[in-house]
């Protein structure tokens, strides 16, 4: 199992598939690891549970859905940003809503970016492409994260 | 026998007589008078008495002249005889040495001779030379020292003569004094003589009472005909025959106050006093009295005013009372008696204390008596026994009464049953509390509804948007994968799926936007409308690209508004104007403002397709559209947002237009922050 550069936390398989399709257009599809809820996301980040055997290191970016069962996106964000080892990992909220309360809470917790999923697929693809390129390719992640140069 | 020649009698009388006219000039004089004054008739006729006999030529206004003139003038004014008991007067006299002016003493009587009108035509003087008597008196006094006894007899004769003169003088003075009193008396007086009640005397006050009618010498029934029917002549008859006086008090009678004037009512206090003659029989009636008409009128007015007060007080809805300076109650109105069931016997005086609750009695009495001593206004709460046996809380307010001269007269006070008011107040308080509770409940319900709305729009935004996104996404993927193998109809269906989903997503977005518009907090600042319009024009530049658009933007003021919301309003209106004018070769869009009453009105006009005025009400409704989507795209939320935002600013929105003739949209903004009675 290799370390992936993008951690996608998404409970909806439809959204996950669309996201992966979009990433496919940028050539980043294989760089994405998809988990289904917040609990799994935290397990992944801490290399716990079913992810205790994953390669060491942290993703270049976490794409986090807001509304999820068990542990929701805001709780994951809060945990990440308050954890000494995890807080440097860039987190991008991916959500269906533009609710101001969500926006405010996310930025209050230290989110790095907040993206409202566009309804139109082409727009969605464009948004994800830009996101993936920026966070996984252009941006210089903190030490310990997977860099582009480490790409096989 | 030869008839008596009165002229001879006059001429030959041994007593001196002379006659003067009204100007005090000699008309005639008899022989005795001419002898006594050493005069000849032809010398004195037509000449003034004081020219001929000045007494002292060096002092024309000497005392003797004054006495004589005074007597003559009295006769002229009173038309009554006048007596000069003793007057020293110098006149010429025949003596052994010839005619000599000597000082002599006279006693004179002046009698008026009246003409047919009763006026004094002449004055007859009868004069007696009393010089000898006077000289005797002088001689007696001279001799008194030498021989008292010898002159005793002479002195006795002289003394009697002097006494007579003195008595005459006194009587005359007294008579004149009485006459003056009668004339000047403020009460009316008259003397009626005989069985026919003929006016013999009537003083000015009486003449005034009857309107200065000439009554003297005429019987009452003729002089005052109007009193006959009123029974006054009968009354006089009774007094005359019975000899008993009659006293009338406050008698009303109809009297002419002027001759021929209509009779008016007068009120009189008077007495008919029978006067007895020397024979002990009634010779006449003395009438004396006062006109009390004005006094009666004042009394009547007072009585009327008091009756009015009583009537008002008795019908007043509060209990009223009046006390005298001692504190005793002298009046209680009907409300008091009806409330307490007391009567005048039990209520007046200090009866109110017996209707006062035993626990309040001492305090109430102390407060009242203390105020009464200080003559100060006071207020007092106490429990008053109602006639049904229930004690009711009452408030008693009283103010001192003073006479016009400042004398304390007691109190006038009112008592109000407070129990009812207290009950109403309590009810009001309960009602208010209930209202408050209801407001709180309503507020809570509203907050609840608001929360529900929040969570509703939250789930809409997540749950409804996601499937729409999925439909679109997978339709796109399908087209990408299998588009080539689909026929034209298949591809059209795929596009319809995609378009419908997009439209659905836009509707959701707009709905959420609209909901947010009503909920977001307003942040007001001073906003330049001109700048907002310019910004909106820039934002809309892409839509105007490739079209001929003529913008006519007038002068626009600054307003107090939420800048972001107002920007949305202008963007919506300008966007509409652009959109609905795109079928025109050249679009003309005008924006201007005009000052209204306390508000600014902004107008946006286009020359576009317009609309039918009958649907104007739908324009501003949520998701209401007047055009089909194929003609002009849109969700129908823009104008609903405009109306909502303007309403939140306290303004109004309306529009006018006609099909094919463009449309004008108006909105207003209050110039100042409107005062809010309730905090939102």
TrEMBL record, chain B:
Coiled-coil residue spans: 421-452
GO biological process, one term: osmosensory signaling via phosphorelay pathway
UniProt catalytic activity: ATP + protein L-histidine = ADP + protein N-phospho-L-histidine
Domain (Histidine kinase): residue spans on this chain: 459-673
Membrane spanning residue stretches: none
SMART domains xrefs: HATPase_c, HisKA, PAC, PAS
EC number: 2.7.13.3
Keywords on record: Coiled coil, Kinase, Membrane, Phosphoprotein, Transferase
GO molecular function, one term: protein kinase activator activity
A single GO cellular-component term on record: membrane
Domain annotation PAS: ranges: 305-376
Stretches assigned to the PAC domain: 85-142, 378-430
Designated name of the protein: histidine kinase
Lineage: Bacteria, Pseudomonadati, Myxococcota, Myxococcia, Myxococcales
């Amino acid at each position: 199992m290799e370390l992936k550069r993008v951690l996608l936390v998404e409970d909806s398989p439809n959204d996950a598939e669309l996201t992966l399709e979009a990433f496919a257009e940028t050539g980043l599809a294989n760089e994405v690891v998809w988990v289904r809820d917040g609990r799994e996301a935290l397990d992944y980040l801490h290399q716990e549970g079913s992810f205790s055997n994953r390669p060491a290191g942290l993703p270049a970016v976490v794409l986090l859905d807001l509304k999820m069962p068990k542990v929701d996106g805001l709780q994951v964000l809060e945990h990440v940003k308050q954890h000494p080892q995890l807080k440097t990992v860039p987190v991008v909220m991916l959500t269906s809503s533009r609710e101001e309360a969500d926006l405010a809470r996310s930025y209050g917790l230290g989110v790095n970016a907040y993206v409202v999923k566009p309804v139109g697929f082409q727009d969605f693809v464009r948004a994800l492409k830009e996101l993936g390129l920026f966070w996984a390719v252009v941006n210089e992640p903190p030490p310990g994260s997977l860099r582009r140069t480490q790409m096989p | 026998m030869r008839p008596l020649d009165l002229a001879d009698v006059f001429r030959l009388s041994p007593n001196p007589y002379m006659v003067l006219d009204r100007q005090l000039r000699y008309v005639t004089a008899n022989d005795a008078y001419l002898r006594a004054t050493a005069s000849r008739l032809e010398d004195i006729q037509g000449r003034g008495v004081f020219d001929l006999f000045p007494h002292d030529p060096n002092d024309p206004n000497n005392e003797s002249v004054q006495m004589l003139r005074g007597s003559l003038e009295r006769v002229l004014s009173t038309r009554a005889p006048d007596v000069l008991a003793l007057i020293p007067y110098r006149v010429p006299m025949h003596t052994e040495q010839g005619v000599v002016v000597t000082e002599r003493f006279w006693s004179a009587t002046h009698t008026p001779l009246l003409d047919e009108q009763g006026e004094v035509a002449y004055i007859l003087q009868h004069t007696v030379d009393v010089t000898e008597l006077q000289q005797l008196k002088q001689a007696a006094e001279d001799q008194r020292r030498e021989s008292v006894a010898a002159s005793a007899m002479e002195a006795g004769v002289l003394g009697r003569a002097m006494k007579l003169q003195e008595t005459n003088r006194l009587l005359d003075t007294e008579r004149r004094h009485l006459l003056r009193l009668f004339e000047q008396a403020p009460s009316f007086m008259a003397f009626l003589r005989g069985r026919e009640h003929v006016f013999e005397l009537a003083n000015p006050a009486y003449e005034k009472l009857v309107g200065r009618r000439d009554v003297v010498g005429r019987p009452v029934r003729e002089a005052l005909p109007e009193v006959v029917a009123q029974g006054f002549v009968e009354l006089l008859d009774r007094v005359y025959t019975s000899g008993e006086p009659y006293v009338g008090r406050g008698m009303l009678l109809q009297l002419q106050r002027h001759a021929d004037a209509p009779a008016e009512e007068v009120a009189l206090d008077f007495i008919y006093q029978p006067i007895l003659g020397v024979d002990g029989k009634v010779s006449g009636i003395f009438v004396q009295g006062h006109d009390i008409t004005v006094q009666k009128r004042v009394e009547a007015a007072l009585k009327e005013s008091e009756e009015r007060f009583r009537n008002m007080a008795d019908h007043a809805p509060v209990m009223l009372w009046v006390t005298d300076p001692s504190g005793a109650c002298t009046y209680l109105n009907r409300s008091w008696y009806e409330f307490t069931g007391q009567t005048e016997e039990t209520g007046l005086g200090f009866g109110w204390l017996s209707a006062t609750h035993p626990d309040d009695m001492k305090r109430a009495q102390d407060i009242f008596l203390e105020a009464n001593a200080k003559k100060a206004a006071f207020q007092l709460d106490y429990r008053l026994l109602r006639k049904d046996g229930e004690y009711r809380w009452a408030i008693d307010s009283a103010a001192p009464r003073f006479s016009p001269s400042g004398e304390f007269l007691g109190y006038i006070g009112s008592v109000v049953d407070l129990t009812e008011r207290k009950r109403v107040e309590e009810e009001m308080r309960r009602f208010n509390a209930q209202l408050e509770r209801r407001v709180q409940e309503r507020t809570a319900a509203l907050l609840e509804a608001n929360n529900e709305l929040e969570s509703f729009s939250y789930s809409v935004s997540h749950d409804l948007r996601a499937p729409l996104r999925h439909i679109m996404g997978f339709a796109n993927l399908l087209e990408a994968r299998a588009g080539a193998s689909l026929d034209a109809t298949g591809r059209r269906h795929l596009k319809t799926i995609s378009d419908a989903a997009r439209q659905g997503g836009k509707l959701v977005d707009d709905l959420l936007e609209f909901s947010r518009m009503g909920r977001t907090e307003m942040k007001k600042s001073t906003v330049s409308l001109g700048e907002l319009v310019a910004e909106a024009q820039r934002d809309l530049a892409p839509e105007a690209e490739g079209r001929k658009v003529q913008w006519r933007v007038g002068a626009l003021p600054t307003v107090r508004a939420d800048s972001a919301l107002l920007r949305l309003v202008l963007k919506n209106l300008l966007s509409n104007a652009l959109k609905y004018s795109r079928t025109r070769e050249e679009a003309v869009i005008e924006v201007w403002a005009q000052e209204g009453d306390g508000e600014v009105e902004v107008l946006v006009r286009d020359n576009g397709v317009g609309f039918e005025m009958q649907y104007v009400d739908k324009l501003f409704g949520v998701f209401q559209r007047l055009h089909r989507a194929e003609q002009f795209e849109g969700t129908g939320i823009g104008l609903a947002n405009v109306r909502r935002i303007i309403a939140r600013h306290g303004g109004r929105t309306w529009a006018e237009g006609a099909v094919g003739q463009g449309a004008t949209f108006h909105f207003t903004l209050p110039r100042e922050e409107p005062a809010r009675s309730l905090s939102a």
